[in-house]
Request: fold
Amino acid sequence: MLKQLRPALVMIVVFTVLTGLAYPLAMTGIAGMLFPKQAAGSLVTENGKVIGSRLIGQNFTSDRYFHGRPSATTGADPSDPSKSIPEPYNAANSGGSNLGPSNPALIARVKGDMDKLKAENPGQPVPIDLVTTSGSGLDPDISPAAAYFQVPRVAKARGMSENDLHDLVAQNVQQPVFGVIGEPHVNVLALNRALDALAKK
Amino acid sequence: MTFAGWLQILIFCGIIVLLVNPLGGYMTRVYQGERTFLSFLLGPFERLLYRLAGTSEKEEQHWVGYAAAMLAFNLVGMLILYALQRFQASLPFNPAGMSAVDPQLAFNTAASFITNTNWQNYAGESTMSYLVQMAGLTVQNFMSAATGMALAIALVRGFARHSVKSVGNFWVDLTRSTLYVLLPLCVVLTIFYVFRGVPQTLGAYVEATTLEGARQTIAVGPVASQLAIKMLGTNGGGFFNANSAHPFENPDAISNLVQMVTIFAIGAALTNVFGRMVGNQRQGWAILAAMGVLFIAGVIVAYWAEAAGNPLLNQLGLTGGNMEGKEVRFGIPLSALFAVVTTDASCGAVNAMHDSFTALGGMIPMINMQLGEIIVGGVGAGLYGIFVFVIVAIFVSGLMVGRTPEYLGKKIEAKEVKMAMLAMLCLPLAMLGFAAVSVVLPSAVSSVANPGPHGFSEILYAFTSATANNGSAFAGLNGNTPWFNLTIGMAMLMGRFLVIVPALAIAGSLAAKKTVPASAGTFPTDGGLFVGLLVGVILIVGGLTFLPALALGPIVEHFAIAAGQTF
Reply:
């Protein structure tokens, strides 16, 4: 074993420099040159201020905006940092609910959310992605059905026509790549920015 | 289940099959020391490195020397990784001001990354500095993968050679795996991932003011470079806590497809390297076919279970399958497929939360790991893992016809079978043994997040994943306790090294044997009958060992849910 000590040390030092420092640092440099926007996190700015990232969902709660999916992320309790409290769309602490399929807490949470949504748009079936938390808690997307479902609420809150909003959602649906790979989805931040732009007109 | 879903699964399988031959050919040239298109660039560097290390490509090692080199390298790597975590607060590249990682967690993480497991009892974005992520974790992502590949090649040499004492040189195999295979592919993949939207920056976390005026801190970092090797090396440890479910770590369906392909690519191609080195590519395809049968079976059950959804939620009037813990951009088919791929291949990255899968959907990942991570398996580890089963299958067939079993012209004798059984028995010992102790320890049981049989599944999954060196989790379990940090750390070390050393012993023993020419009585090992026999042996061994434990977890949960019961 002792005979192997020299090659072991030489190899680990050389490969640490190569794969642990040179590789990520060179990649950071090249990525920053080729794709500076993506490398920095696909940030969205308005009037020079960062308002979020195209890829990271935000916690929309106002009736005037389309909402994303429920999020199970948590954050430190301001009154006691050793404890954590729910903090939806905490982009510094991603994670899912990890509730098992037989956990009554899951069933109760989904039922509560469904009741709220049914009151908002009676008679329509509730899209499942609006009552289930995502794996990351930062899902930037909702299904087209979930966007259409919210049209009556947003239209009422904004005093806009449902038809206009319906068209807006349709324009913002992203189809699967080559028609097959992935699922159709709507980026909620992009949709809400388009909504603000439409409202200004 | 939808047509589009099956089409995506088919596309994935097609890409893998197309990659096997070219990648296998390239890797064979690399390991045999032949010239490749990268030799002019890397050759001089490679030779300089051997000189510094006091070895050379001409020098060959006996299996014991090979094992000693591998163990020394892993020990040194583990100590360095442990130290980096303990001292991260006073080291550079720490813009978020992370403090020292506590000793048990640092042990667990060090064991986790040198064994290619990447079980994570920590959340990356809130625990590890950029330095630890790069110079600690990323380095071991490369090194543990290269170690696995080296060992697989050593075992293949055992089959390919005859009447010699040596199985190759660990340092040469390690260097070539890293320089010629892993690193060049990772450079290309990193750039591709950044193009799709994965961050690659050393800047601090971004403060944003959202559309509704709230503050949002967005964690970023050198993600893409770690992501590339995390998949290609079947490591699976996420930069972020949510792993490849995080939109920064897997921005869209295309990045998702590439991630799944790179998980399988090297492991699948190694079967072809094996075929080429023993002089009959059909031998490699037969091994891959057995893996393929088990893979497809897993995909069918997992996709069906997730698409059918959770009966307790469907009763409320919901349709569309089980979306709890899944991302909209991947949907049901790509989440189910990813779960099967990642647990077949000992990767352990996730793009959906396995803890929230349906009972049967979550059982498939568990079974995949319990079979020993041999369905493609970890890079290298999958190949030497399945040879353990091949030897037992050949032995069983020999017993059936009353003839000394042989494989590729090598007589399989008592020593090989004993070593194969030793490797095979260590896995259930750690998986079931630690799980059994944990479920009677109140302090361990208090770590589970879901009551009832699902809580049992969380603990069983943890030790299964650790021992199989997978690293995915039923993540509701709080593993960051002294008990779990130590026992899961031990399970990972057992699952890695108690398989590697017997596998190397088999390699040494086979290399020393003479080749016997094939005769009319030789059982052909490149046809359908052999594939069927191998699959049968794998399923019988796995079934006998794990069915009782599965009955207490996912199976009972499935029937309870069907009867409308919660826990």
User: Anything to note?
Assistant: The CA atoms of residues 83 and 527 of chain B lie 50 Å apart. Chain B is about 65% helix and 5% strand.
